[in-house]
Specification:
- The structure is a homodimer.
- Chain A is an alpha/beta fold.
- Chain A contains 21 helices and 16 strands.
- The radius of gyration of chain A is 26 Å and the shape is globular.
- The interface between A and B is large, with 69 and 70 residues.
Chain lengths: 695, 695
């Protein structure tokens, strides 16, 4: 400890320009490879951007900043094309909105957008080529977003706490808005634009009606005006009971004419502040939130009322499928499907149902949600969680695109083989015009935006996949590592390896073999397989793992809850994979695994292997000490050490806890620490971040 | 608005190195005046620091960073003295701890500390000379702190909210400590060391017993270890009921032997983690906090119990005099004096009573606290509030050293003329060895530390005055402006003028002529003279201003609450100044003021003049646009505009409200806006920062 502190003392200080992570992947440091730099300079001598628009202005500003940084040279803007001109323009003949083409010939490089947003995205694509030291001769790129609305969901409260936020507090300083405009808002818009995100929901789905009162709409307007040139549209969350709370009505019944009129008037008012307002996200009748069921109406009744109000303005309603019965169900995994399957076809055309990737709640591994593919007449959008509520929060390195790709590539078999989840949500499976995806943001006011430096890669990766879900996780990891750290190939390889393996490693030391929802209560931090008493049994861990003297796991087969029958028959076969074993089956401790070990031994081995793999990740990182600036090296080093401590907590406590049921010895050579189970059960995190504080 | 937004769009971006205020006054940018730079370079060719210690190490590191920045040149360390050597060393023959001498001759510059902290403070003094472009030939400086314990009080809660915090949330990331050590902690220590602050109370006086459990003490230890080389001692707040809450005892009675033993054992445990732990601050029997009176014991009983526990370790107890009866008193201003005067002489020698500057609560203007000078046998320490709870929070520019000096220079007449408050607290009046001062910190995790860039000057000014209360406010403003902005004399003059006038301007538009405690309820933001219903009447505004058809003001003379009689007779005469008029007197609306106006006209004029003066400050700032970097210029410009809006709210609403009593016309040419009083009364700040959120 003493040595660590001394090392820190020697390293810590205010160097003029510390590597604090604020610049994200938009660093624009000078290209280090002199050959590459020379080639770039010879190809990019000046820039021509004919035409003008607010987006053209921010595009030019970004370009000037980036080229000056990357090429270490002021690149002038001109008004004609000569040798070495980078031309960025709009060609309305390109039909697909937001799309772009990049081509180069001996003379010039041409970035052509279908519209100004497309041109801007094309510019960021081109900058990415430079940032990753890619070749820029003979370019022939065409790109269009596979999904139309690519949205971030902020679970930020008006007091700046963030539900499930682990990177400090909300970047929205509501109290000082509208007069005081934090420069960070602009950098936020730039970062999103650079990865193709085109919408943001500013506040928590557990909504506050104040947000749609004039006092707050004035503040929202400032943000919307600032974001507009970056093609970033503002959405809000609608509190279903707002007509009562701020409208003075007696009811919020969606079929009540007064209520319907109140929402129409309110929506018209919102559009006066924000003419391109995107629409609402609604969490209704879920976890205590009000909703149409309070009035014996359906989710469709509620959604359609709001949809009608925003329709004249081309707004949309994103209605969340994450709902609960007030009665505890036999299997919570079945709930959303049960409620929404029967409503298929009953929603207005500007309603989209927002479905979490899996049927429980953003666990480290879940099968895809059975609603995907199940609603032939209702568009579904994906809700991923970028913030790592169940994946170590801001102290664990876990690269999530790997997990998201697993879901996107899963086959629903809705229209036969190849009916992937990706095709459901991008609209191609059902030939839908509209498509959308949401990611619950991991952004806070921590200097580096995301708490853990590597968590930036999840924001980045979410945006990249939202634009093109066919990108590979490895390519995304590579890009991000190059833009964030260095173009040294061996360093990039090491960092990419750390990222790519990190998710499966985490699954092993947290929830191997299909285990799920066995974390600490409320804050969801650290292990808690022993959590057995909560106000609802489907919030406990024992509800999910069902460990007993015979075995462990949730039987969702025909002999159990039958949840597996919510999937198409061919799709069900995918779940024979051992990685889903305990999700779908209650299995004997002595069940023979493919490895030849018993299930009990296999569980122990997974926990132990997870920790060992993490040590491998630590080792890889340590070896990079001379290749990474000291600020960022130290930041990640400290967090990896914390992660290892926590991974060992998971291993030790889960093995010891499950052993109280299995009554079998832990395979030798597997370390479970030197403390009794009670020690782990007694660990408290009284002020863990991300939950509403209790006073 | 549109123009503003476009201007912002053009200005906002991630320049490689934005002027975000993080570097505080420790910028160390290259000296711009080439003559001065040349002179410095010829005098400082190398550095010799004989001897070693952790403080010597951080001193050397700071010096290397600073000289490289200021002189734009690596200045080598040597191990002997030659021409142009800067020698920094310790000479134990200098008797006063922490003090230093700086001298220079043709050959070398010598900084000699009584100890390593003294040497470090001497170095920061020398760096300040360079930063302000002062001469460094024929130096002959000696300096010693006038007050021994110079402390910051953080009102930070364990969930990172800050009571009365307006610069974001707590910089202490307890959840990720002890493993993750934010580099900001070191920069915090550096900043405090640079202005002579040598102690910090990490958490809120509304204390949490968890803070002294092993889980948190492990985290505290990391901070204490990090701060130690910077001569920054850690103190904690003691929750009086901790023996019950975490000790499992049935009582916290300070005369109970078990309770006394529990505290002794607990304190011994704390010192195992932090061997130089400074001691406790205690808020007891005040605003709902538990204390000795719960057991019919006195404040002395409570304080002495804790004092006994920390005495063997040389710890101290700072016992706050800010207490309330549970019964609402006829005049809250008299409370602390009434309770503590009679306890004079009953406290152990390592107890010091912490007294706020004024008898109410950190108002924009208060007379000094009557306890100062009233306790000949009990040491008192000063509690200033750096965070601007009642002075516009993070949206108003108000340079507080002006206000603090007014208090420090006030004469208590305790031992005849010249018995200033400063002499009471620095110990010279009563020939006391120990002396202390506390400032309630305005630091949060906002990038610029204090929310408002100019609020940095209050942190800075507090530290400078704590070291030497004889420094003038103007000198402090000058120093800070030079170190923070520029050494251009005319710019420094303008900025210093803005700072020096800002406090009186704020008093005029908020609480002129001795008015006090007329702000919004709970959050204390914005005007609220109409606040009349709270759970205690001494929390309302009407309790304090007592406006009625005859006049306005709180009669604290012989005909009223007699609070004035708590002061020595000669001291009372100071309060004849019109600036205290309504603090001590209930005065007729038609009372003739020195100006010849009636009181009513004078009140209106003060409000109006405050706004006009503020517009003058805005104008001065605007004229500096080409002289200040755009980031900081814009930041301050936006906040000044917000401040002007709020000053107008104060003016309009207070004049309209008091007019409902005075029934007299507003003097012509005084603008009160175009809205009725109701409009102002209805303004809400539902999520104003700095109060514990309610759910």
């Amino acid at each position: 400890m003493k040595h660590l502190l001394i090392a820190i003392l020697l390293l810590c200080c205010l160097p003029a320009f510390s590597e604090d992570g604020y610049r994200l992947w938009l660093r624009y440091d000078k290209v280090q490879d002199t050959k590459v730099l020379k080639a770039y300079k010879s190809k990019i001598k000046n820039v021509y951007v004919p035409g003008t628009s607010p987006t053209a202005e921010v595009l030019k500003k970004e370009l000037a900043l980036a080229l000056k940084g990357l090429l270490d040279k002021d690149i002038p803007f001109t008004d004609n094309i000569s040798s070495g001109t980078l031309v960025i323009q709009v060609n309305p003949l390109i039909s697909s909105p937001e799309s772009y083409e990049i081509s180069s010939n001996k003379n010039s490089i041409n970035i052509t957008g279908a519209d100004w947003p497309g041109a801007m995205y094309g510019m960021f694509h081109f900058l990415r080529l430079l940032q990753t030291n890619s070749g820029i001769t003979d370019l022939s790129v065409t790109s269009r977003p596979k999904i139309k609305a690519r949205i971030l969901n902020h679970w930020d409260n008006l007091d700046r706490t963030i539900e499930r936020g682990y990177a400090g507090f909300s970047i929205w300083d509501w109290h000082r808005l509208p007069e005081y405009i934090d420069p960070r808002y602009t950098d936020y818009a730039r970062a999103n634009a650079s990865i193709g995100i085109n919408g943001t929901v500013l506040t928590n789905v557990n909504a506050n009606a104040l947000m749609i009162t004039p006092m707050y709409l004035e503040k929202v307007k400032v943000l919307a005006d600032l974001f507009r040139p970056y093609n970033l549209k503002v959405y809000l969350t609608a509190r279903f009971s707002a007509p009562i709370e701020i409208g003075g009505l007696k009811t919020a019944d969606p079929l009540d004419p007064e209520v319907r009129q109140w929402w129409k008037t309110k929506v018209d008012e919102i559009y006066k502040y924000v003419p391109d307002f995107g629409g609402f996200v609604v969490k209704a009748n879920s976890e205590g939130q009000p909703g149409p069921q309070n009035y014996n109406r359906t989710h469709a009744d509620g959604a359609n009322m709001l949809a009608e109000a925003v329709a004249p303005h081309n707004g949309i309603v994103m209605w969340r499928a994450f709902v609960y019965d007030s009665n505890v169900p036999d299997d919570r995994a079945k709930q959303a499907y049960s409620e929404f399957k029967s409503l298929d076809g009953k929603f207005n055309s500007n309603v989209v149902i927002q479905v979490k990737n899996g049927p429980i709640d953003f666990q480290p591994r879940e099968p895809f949600h059975p609603l995907f593919g199940a609603t032939s007449s209702t568009p579904l959008m994906m809700e991923f969680q970028i913030t790592q509520e169940y994946l170590g929060q801001a102290t664990h390195l876990a690269f999530l695109p790997v997990m998201w790709k697993e879901c996107l590539q899963a086959d629903t078999y809705a229209k036969g083989k190849g009916s992937t989840v990706a095709k459901v949500i991008d609209g191609t499976l059902d030939n839908r015009q509209f498509s959308a995806i949401a990611g619950v943001a991991n952004i806070g006011n921590d200097r580096n935006w995301t708490g853990h430096l590597f968590a930036q890669s999840n924001w980045y990766g979410y945006g990249r996949l939202a634009w093109d879900h066919e990108l590979s996780s490895l390519d995304i990891a590579n890009e991000w590592a190059r833009m964030t750290f260095t173009n040294d190939n061996d360093v990039v390889e090491d960092i990419s390896w750390m990222m790519i393996t990190s998710h499966e490693t985490l699954v092993k030391y947290m929830t191997p073999l299909g285990l799920h929802h066995i974390m600490g209560a409320n804050h969801h931090f650290g292990p808690g397989p022993w959590v057995a008493k909560m106000s609802r049994s489907d919030w406990t861990s024992t509800y999910y793992h069902k460990a007993d003297s015979l075995g462990i796991g949730f039987d969702r087969t025909a002999s159990g809850s039958k949840a597996i029958e919510q999937y198409f028959p061919d799709a069900q076969k995918q779940f024979n994979d051992e990685k889903f074993l305990l999700w779908f089956n209650h299995v004997s401790w002595d069940y023979k695994m493919k490895s030849g070990q018993t299930l009990w031994e296999e569980i122990c081995t997974h926990y132990a292997t997870g920790v060992e793999e993490l040590k491998g990740i630590q080792k890889t990182w340590s070896a990079l000490s001379s290749r990474i600036d000291s600020d960022r090296f130290r930041h990640v080093t400290m967090l990896l050490e914390r992660q290892r401590n926590e991974a060992e907590l998971w291993r030790n406590s889960c093995i010891l806890y499950f052993q109280t049921f299995s009554k079998r010895p832990v395979p030798k050579d597997i370390d479970t620490g030197n403390k009794p189970l009670e020690y782990y059960i007694n660990i408290q995190y009284p002020y863990a971040p991300g939950i509403r504080p209790r006073w």
